[in-house]
Amino acid sequence: MKTIPIRLRHIMLGLFSSLALLWPLLFGTGGTTATLEQVFAFAAFAMSYDLLIGYTGIISFGHAMFFGTGAYVVAIALARGNGHTMSFLFGFGLAVVGAVVLSLLVAFISLRIRNAYFAMITLAVGQVFAVMAGSQGLRQWTHGNDGLTFSVPNWLNGDLTLYYLCLFFLFLTAVFLTRFVASPVGQVLRGIRENESRAVGLGLGVVQFKTLAFVVSGVTATLAGGVYALAQSFVSTGVYDVSGISLNVLLMVVIGGVGTLYGGVLGAAVLVGVQNLFSNWSGWPILTQHEMLWFGILYILIVRFLPQGILGSVVARGGVVSWRALPRFKKSQT
Amino acid sequence: MSVVVTLIFNGLANGALYFLMSAGLTLIFGLLRVINFAHGVFYLWGAYAGVFLYNEFHNFLLAILGGVITGAALGLLTERGLMAKVYQDPTRQLLLTMGVLLVLTELLKIPFGRDPAGATIPSMLAKSWLLGHFVLVEYQVFTLGMGILVYVGLLLLLHRTRLGLVIRAGVANPDLVLARGVPIRRIFTAMFMLGAGLAGLAGALAGPYYGSVTPDMGMNMQLNAFIIVVLGGLGSLNGSVLGSLLIGVATAVVGYYAPSLAVLAAVLVMAMVLVVRPAGLFGEKEVA
């Protein structure tokens, strides 16, 4: 039973990766590759988010704080350095350091007591970043609500290179996170998700492991934000938006499938694809101008009736342990 | 000096609004053990119901009642229709309430649009008095009075009635209350409706208080309420009173000098308290 889904997964993976690799060669660069670059950046972001919600069982409602910081730090470094390669490297390096510091700070005030605190505090901190990015005091750095345009290094300047950079980044993220969740640390994280008291009872430093997951997820999300900024050559306060980014990535992961890692890729493709489609389409305003309403309803239905999401449900059919079975553990313990 | 007095009074009036939000949030958590991420949307719909009714009928009492009823009705639908179905799974309850916030906020934008809509203070509450250099605004006094009224009402409910006894027992041990033959599920629903109704009341009061209503106000108010309950300690009513006043004054003072930094100030106050007391001022020590 168990070999079938794995083989199927490999076939699907191979199919989609070769399609992604060949796409610009077959269909040329243009509107679609720009959309695909966004999909790749958001897919990596969604995978980093799934590490928290799907593998550790903690929910952040402010993950835009990392995505946005990555985008802004890379953008500001490149704008200041006139697109020099050194400023490119410096920007990504600084973004990673910033992400580590930020995630440690947030983890310190929010992860020590209760998982619900984490959700509330990340939401609040995320909002602080959104306000700061648009504030007058930082205007000379961020250009406030106008947004910031910058040029990428010369060797990156070209639709094809940028496309393959985004794809390569998604590939690296996927490999890294797959290895990470399969590692002993990843097993501990899943143990915490399934039964936290038992993990404490086994003498595991639950807070430290959660903090580690948050740092890894934050750094990955920051890099995704940086790559997103590169793909756009522009960054605005929208990258910190609560509903535009933080809740969007939640919808991507939930719709795609919580705890499957690759579900986030599927969710990102669906959401970014539909959002781009709707923004270029003027008919049916109730559908195209309020797409978050329909995605929100879909999200509620999935959480209520299909907690494994689309991909998760497909995989579960193949005989892999289902996520829905988890609450039974919790119930028996009290 | 008059600036300081004005700011502190503004802060107290802000705090009264914050308290109406955070009281519901903290009571719901105390009993149902779930953070209601849809709380801001009850407030938002309460605000729009209040403004709509006041513009139609010019009756402020009706507007306030409409806000409360809108909030409570949405609370009933959310609790019965969604949360009760995934009762044993706190993570999914959390995710569902966030979905309710998202959907209802977006739904409101279809008839009312994304732009702010003006809200007027009813003429009977629009007076203001000059005391030396200090201006006392009647609507702020009214808001503060409502906050105190609700606090006293909640204390009486919790400590002087049989329902309050059941609620406090339910906070301590819901299973045991159920074993005594009390239908705890119904108490849960009632508590959720009470909290949602208070959020609706806060919304109906907030429209005239801030002079306009926008679709963003729900999320912004919810953030303040979260900061307050985390700071005061989840589940503690007195913690949310103290937290509301603290955050109310802090946002009033910082907002006077740098309006955009008010939320930063609130988060910093919260972070400082949490570093010293990780469970909040009056929070119970519970290992996650």
Please provide a written account of the structure:
The complex is a heterodimer of chains A (334) and B (288). Chain A has a two-stranded antiparallel sheet. Chain A has helices at residues 3-27, 31-56, 64-80, 85-110, 115-134, 139-142, 159-182, 184-194, 196-201, 206-232, 242-256, 263-279, 285-288, 291-305, 309-317, 327-333; strands spanning 148-149, 234-235. Chain A contains 16 helices and 2 strands. Residues 319-334 of chain A have low confidence and may be disordered. Chain A has one domain (3-326): Orthogonal Bundle (ABC transporter involved in vitamin B12 uptake, BtuC). By secondary structure, chain A is mainly α. The mean pLDDT of chain B is 90. A two-stranded antiparallel sheet of chain B has the order 1-4. Chain B has a two-stranded antiparallel ribbon with strand order 2-3. Chain B is built from 11 helices and 4 strands; from the N terminus they run ααααβββααααβααα. Chain B is globular and about 60 Å long. In chain B, a hairpin with a 2-residue loop joins strand 2 and strand 3 (134-137). Chain B has one domain. In chain B, helix 1 (2-32) packs across helix 9. Chain B starts with a helix and ends in a 12-residue tail after the last helix. Chain B is mainly alpha-helical and 288 residues long. Chains A and B meet through helix 4, helix 5, helix 11, helix 14 and helix 16 of A and helix 4, helix 9 and helix 11 of B.
